[in-house]
């Protein structure tokens, strides 16, 4: 039994999924993997199910019908992981924009005292590869905006590469996490900090996907922009 579970949400990731799974299982620490697939029509789930025969009791899948949002996928995965009593619960993309080898570093940060460890693109300058400049600037200034509105000292507020200690997910009321797009990532960090947990950032190099299609949309961006203000206002009336 591993103490660490990597949650990977998927929608149409057949070009990446086998490679990312095999890479995670090749690491020095024995991570388990939970795939949350939102009814990928390209057969992503079938590839995972085939690999589950090769990796019994290490690789798991939860299938959902339709695209229900990144945030709800992770909440589903968090609840699943808590029932299995994993101590370290990770978020990671399927497309290799997050280097699986950094999982070990994120886990070590939590073993050594952090409650949440973030793989940060901006803690040491800007470490993003293959993104157009417009998207880099949008992402970077989104974090500046989040710091200004919320007051939290996080350089990469929208980062989606993280390790949580179990106690963080047990304490946060997951059903009260409202947002489903990239605002979900901001809300989880904000809520953890408001509860008094120690959140640290580790520098990573983020490399844009080379296979498959990005899920970013204008709707997701708008949710993050207005959601930060709404989240801050709601926090004035909530006990942590």
TrEMBL record:
One Pfam family per UniProt: Glycos_transf_2
The enzyme's E.C. designation: 2.4.1.83
Keyword Transferase found: yes
Alphabetic keyword roster: Glycosyltransferase, Transferase
Keyword Cytoplasm attached: no
Occurrences of domain Glycosyltransferase 2-like (ranges): 6-172
A biological-process GO annotation: glycolipid biosynthetic process
GO cellular component: membrane
Superkingdom of origin: Bacteria
GO molecular function: dolichyl-phosphate beta-D-mannosyltransferase activity
Classification via InterPro entries: DPM1-like, Glyco_trans_2-like, Nucleotide-diphossugar_trans
Family the entry assigns: Belongs to the glycosyltransferase 2 family.
Protein's UniProt name: Dolichyl-phosphate beta-D-mannosyltransferase
UniProt source species: Pseudopedobacter saltans (strain ATCC 51119 / DSM 12145 / JCM 21818 / CCUG 39354 / LMG 10337 / NBRC 100064 / NCIMB 13643) (Pedobacter saltans)
